[in-house]
Amino acid sequence: MCLGVPLKIVEIKDDKTALVSMGNSKMEISIVFTPEAKVGDYVLVHAGFAIRVLEEDHALEIRKLVAEFENEK
């Protein structure tokens, strides 16, 4: 099973990497599979790679569902 996490791009470093954030955490990811991604976009990240650009409402819904799941533990 694979898990992709929706993260927001806060900086494009070059044509291959970007900085994403979730809360106070930031990390560098590869955007080689999503060259159309831009600052402010949400991307689905798996294993350090952005694999798809998401619409904001979809990304926020996924985050909401994950938070609900975590609260059920």
Q: Your description of this structure?
A:
With 73 residues, the protein is α+β, with helices and mostly antiparallel strands. It has one domain: SH3 type barrels (Roll), CATH 2.30.30. The protein contains 1 helix and 5 strands. The protein has one helix spanning 56-71, and strands spanning 5-12, 17-22, 25-30, 42-46, 49-54. A 5-stranded antiparallel β-sheet has the order 3-2-1-4-5, covered by helices on one side. A hairpin with a 2-residue loop joins strand 4 (42-46) and strand 5. The radius of gyration is 12 Å and the shape is elongated. The two termini are 20 Å apart. 21% of the residues are buried.
> Biggest sheet, strands in spatial order?
3-2-1-4-5
Q: How much of the polypeptide forms β-strand, as a percent range? A: 35-45%
Number of domains: 1
Straight-line N-to-C gap: 20 Å
Tell me about the largest β-sheet.
5 strands, antiparallel
The residue fraction in helices comes out at: 10-25%
| CATH fold-level assignment | SH3 type barrels
Which residues sit in consecutive blocks of at least 5 with pLDDT less than 50? none
Count the DSSP helices.
1
Structural class comes to alpha+beta
Q: What's the assembly state of these chains?
A: single chain
Task: Give the CATH architecture.
Answer: Roll
SSE ordering: EEEEEH
What do the pLDDT scores average to? Answer: 92
Radius of gyration from CA coordinates? 12 Å
Number of E-state strands: 5
